[in-house]
Amino acid sequence: MLKPLTNILVVDDEQEICDIIRESLSSAEYRVTTLTDSSKALEYLDNHPVDLVLTDMVMDEYSGLQILEAAQAKQQDVMVILMTAHPTVKMAISVLKKGAYDFLVKPFKLDLLKSAIHRALSHQRALRENVHLRGQIEFLKVANAHTSGIEIETFLEMVMDSCKKELGATAVGLIEIDPNTKEPIRWNSITDDDELEAVVVDASIIDKFAGTRRTKPVIEGKRITSKEQPIIRMSIYQPLYIRRTLHGVISLVIDSVFGQVTPGQLDVLAILTNSAASAIANYNLYQDLQHSYLEAIHGLANAIEARDKYTAGHTDRVCKLAELIAIELDWDDKQLLGLTMGCTLHDIGKLAVPDSILNKPNALTKDEAKQMRKHPEMGLKIIKGIDLFKPAIPFIYSHHERWDGKGYPRGLKGEEIPLEGRLLAVADTFDAILSHRPYRKGASLQSAVDELVKYRGVQFDPMIVDIFLRVLKEGKVDIKGMYDLDEDPTALEIKISTPVTETAPV
Ligand SMILES: [Fe+2]
To answer: Is residue 497 part of a domain?
Structure first.
């Protein structure tokens, strides 16, 4: 599919001129075709790739200008040089205006012809180089986006979009596979033709590289008819490797008259695929790291619960309840991940509270309560040095603030309290009321609801309480599974009344 030779078409109704030009251009670099019939020349331009056309101006059937127009319509970056024995300034200007590269007056010396061809092909190389440079600019844009921390999906779409532009593709697809099972785990496409959507993300594309270490693209082509025109539909499959293991393929469908891509375009494709590969590799590493951190978080949460024998399962339940509220607030995946972290770690500061206080079977003394109330600050101290845990901070530090400003550690009021803290306060308290504690048994569901209603707008953000009670009443909370209670949440009585100014038991 690559062009090893420069294709030159010579059109002149004088056979002798054709022969002389062919002879003078015979070199290893050029493939010269000569035609004396201008109508055959038009046909030739319809069906063959041509880099340079050398045509007589005046011929029997079609003129040099018509050959010029046909060449420009059918061929990419084609250079056209016109020849005439009867030049006029007007003709020269009009020909050059129409986009001919040069104009030669017959008879001409062959050296003059060769240098005109040489200049035209240098100009063509510069134009094609320019395409390559544009490809590199696309790459730089993509590379910049990669380092600016955009989401992986957006980044991969940018890569596909650049591939589409630079290779003039009709459709581009990206398939990422699990390197062990070879099953697709992510796929996406950008296409001008809906019918090609499934083609570019067809899982069987991966089989083309199975068991091979092929790094070069697989290029296939077939003749089809599109809009009543015969064209070549090329499929290019560029493998995507991460540390020498196949992780996916970028596939393109390109419709063109001659089924050509330049080496520069293939270079751009390889470069863009590499940037997609490094983005996926970074993302996977980040996911692994995050997974390890989440495991560490769960380890820490278990350590907290192991010390406080009365709160077994508290963390998991609070996470579930808080998530139900967050979903109603339309939180996105990133916020939900922060919520999982925050809810899991919210009481991590209790690691600094002595066992004697944490597990005391009866009410705490004033001093003991003071120590216990330090756990949000202790939690902040433990977490704040770890970058990845930053989203957990507002949960840890603010979950004991109160809507009326009487909470701790900062005594924030109303919406001064981060939303994360207001949300967690409701989930945490609801679970605390329903759970068995050293100093009391778990309450009934109705009494837990009554408590939330009672302290709505006093201790709790009324908006969060309302959302939670709605979710509860809709039966979205697994009360039986979480608390072994037989009460039917959908039958709950929820009576919103004027707020009181006391404190709910926690
Ligand atoms: Fe707490």
So the answer is: no
> CA geometry: angle at 494 spanning 493 and 498, to 5°?
135
Counting the structural domains of the chain, the total is: 3
Place 332 in a pLDDT band, splitting at 50, 70 and 90: very high
The rounded Å distance from CA 400 to ligand 1 centre is: 6
Task: State which residues form the domain around 448.
Answer: 308-491
SS3 annotation, 111-125: HHHHHHHHHHHHHHH
Q: Exposure of 361 by Cβ count < 10 A (0-12 exposed, 13-18 middle, 19+ buried)? A: exposed
pLDDT, tens only, 406-437: 999 999 999 999 999 999 999 999 998 888 65
Which pLDDT does position 36 carry in this prediction? 95
With respect to residue 289, please indicate whether it lies within any of the assigned structural domains: no
Distance 362 CA to ligand 1 centre (A): 18
CA of 197 from ligand 1 middle (Å) equals 51
> Which of the 8 DSSP states describes residue 297?
H
CATH number (domain holding residue 32): 3.40.50.2300
Stretch 161-187: mean pLDDT, rounded? 92
Residues with CB under 5 A from ligand 1 (ion): 347
Does residue 295 belong to any structural domain of this protein? no
Spacing, Cα 347 to ligand 1 middle (Å): 5
Say how many Å lie between the CA of residue 474 and the centre of ligand 1: 27
Angle between helices 110-147 and 263-307 (to 10 degrees): 10
**CA 401 – ligand 1 centroid, Å:** 10
Contacts of 464 (CB under 8 A, 6+ apart): 325, 422, 423, 425, 426
Distance from residue 424's CA to the centre of ligand 1 (Å): 9
On whether the CB atoms of residues 14 and 39 are closer than 8 A, the answer is no
Whole-number Å distance, alpha carbon 476 to ligand 1 midpoint, is 24
